[in-house]
Amino acid sequence: MIQEYQIRVLPHVAASTATIKEFVAREKGIDARTINEIRVLKRSIDARHRQIYVNLSVRLFINEMPADEGYERVDYPDVSKSTKVIVVGEGPAGLFAALRLVELGLRPIVVERGKDVRNRKTDLAQITKTQKVNTESNYCFGEGGAGAYSDGKLYTRSKKRGNVEKILNVFCQHGASTNILSDAHPHIGTDKLPRVIENMRNTILQSGGEVHHETKMIGLILNQNKVVGVETVNLATGDEKAFEGPVILATGHSARDVYSYLFEKNIEIEAKGIAVGVRLEHPSQLIDKIQYHTNNGRGKYLPAAEYSFVTQVDGRGVYSFCMCPGGFVIPAATGAEQIVVNGMSPSNRGGQWSNSGMVVELRPEDVEGDSPLRIMEWQKDVERNCWLQGNMRQTAPAQRMVDFVNGKISYDLPRSSYAPGLISSPLHFWLPTHVGSRLREGFKVFGRKSHGFLTNDAVVIAVETRTSSPVRILRDAERLMHVTIDGLFPCGEGAGYAGGIVSAGVDGERCAEMVAAYLGKE
Asked: Does residue 442 contact residue 435 with C-beta atoms inside 8 Å?
């Protein structure tokens, strides 16, 4: 017999399946010896009051064993002799597009400019050691995309766009904990996500697909108004090679050379709004105390606390973005003369600091001109100015939070997780006015909402600009194919149609399905 219950328990009860089982058996009058397995279907923390509870939806298997592994498996057939489809980019959009192509009986040929997810680590370490960025292998470029080493959060609001549960189940099939199916804000963690990504790549290869790392697309092969393949160069050897087939273009939000190429070839694109701001870092214990309403912080049984803020200042949204409890601030530039910051968390979220992007909405009309690349060029200018303020290294300009709000110089800075180091800088003075002024007002609002949040124990680190793509590659809303170029399927965050790992994965699957329809392989 299978029974499901909704229960509300104290944190120590929710800490393990054994204590949950004991509680349910006692409360529901069930003999605990008859419960062969208990699964948590949904888990959320209610920290609105001083007494914190955990809300759980649980499934009990009474006098029987479950017939599955806790997730739904996908069968991937042999596609080694099937029709080829080119997937440019091996981030979440590209990976899920490739896996869905296999599922549909098509053969994905994946080309990725960066290195595989393991070898990327060496290049990431060099950013701190040498203060230099490998322009093809960094926190944004490489197998797994920007999400691989930038936290691995799986929370999305894009439930109407596709099958979110399918995406989470595919992650579980490739090694992610089944906790991601139940947590309100699921998270894999930067320490565990690389192994999952490797397993996804191996599924593609074992099914007969191809994955080519350090292989950069240098052009589309066009036959009148139809894409029939891509031209590539192997960055290790210099060898050029063409791959033929329809193209899913899933290059991520930082592939500026791709946007410039499309613009030069008169392939329709448009400027897209982004959000720009800073990384705000607090001691994680302070955030725990604020969010859990107790000087004891999270204690033994609660996770590192999260927060979410949003307000309007002078007609533009100001909000927290990509909150990383118990995490690190990382250098996310993709080229020379740039400083860009982002955040990540390991799976246990056990770090000393918690950070989030604090950003201001920027719309195309906020930047002068009519070029579809104007937001991208504005991005580049801000990042270069930040690099100049950081002594032309990866040391990031920073300011204590209250000093930033009050327009005062910080004569010293608190310790930080940002490994390349911080340098005191008057961000209030040199950040673009419509960004800096709105951030300051937003921080005041957030400080009033959450006592203790606005503090000089927190540090504001510049600059966060890679929140989403500054360009949208225009596509038909129904077929997901480019509006004027047949055989080209702009996909994911880099094309302007997703925002995060899960929504990018959903869009990747949808594009794969549209390619199948285009090829008559539905």
From this structure: no
CB atoms within 10 A of CB 16: 11
Q: CA dihedral defined by 66, 67, 72, 77, rounded to 10 degrees?
A: 160
The pLDDT value given to residue 162: 62
The amino acid at 503: S
Report the C-alpha gap between 254 and 233 in whole angstroms.
19
Q: Closest Cα to residue 249, out of 239, 265, 262?
A: 262
Q: Dihedral angle at the C-alpha atoms of 286, 289, 291, 293, nearest 10 degrees? A: -150
Which residues, in sequence order, are CB contacts of 29 under 8 Å at separation 6+? Answer: none
Q: Which two tokens stand for residue 117?
A: 């997810």
Strands (E), 168-258: 210-212, 215-223, 226-234, 240-244, 247-249
Alpha helices in 138-283 (DSSP H): 164-173, 193-206, 256-264
CA 473-476-479 angle, to 5 degrees, is 120
Please state the pTM of the whole predicted model. Answer: 0.95
Over residues 338-392, the pLDDT tens digits come to 999 999 998 889 999 999 999 999 999 999 999 999 999 999 999 999 999 999 9
Q: What is the pLDDT of residues 163-218, one digit of tens each?
A: 899 999 999 999 999 999 999 888 888 889 999 999 999 999 999 999 999 999 99
Q: Are the C-beta atoms of 501 and 509 separated by less than 8 Å?
A: no
Residues 6 or more apart whose CB falls under 8 angstroms from that of 231 comprise 217, 218, 219, 220, 221, 240, 241, 242
pLDDT tens-digit map of 57-103: 999 999 999 888 889 999 999 999 999 999 999 999 999 999 999 99
How far apart (Å, rounded) are the C-alpha atoms in residues 198 and 148?
A: 11
Closest CA relative to residue 137, chosen from 332, 398, 356, 367? 332
Ranges assigned E (strand) in 15-101: 35-46, 53-62, 84-88
| 324-271-385-454 Cα dihedral, nearest 10 degrees | -40
Give the span between the Cα atoms of 446 and 401, in whole angstroms.
Answer: 12
Closest of 459, 328, 464, 462 to residue 399, by C-alpha: 459
Q: Which CA distances in Å does 280 have to 4, 147, 375, 440?
A: 41, 19, 23, 12
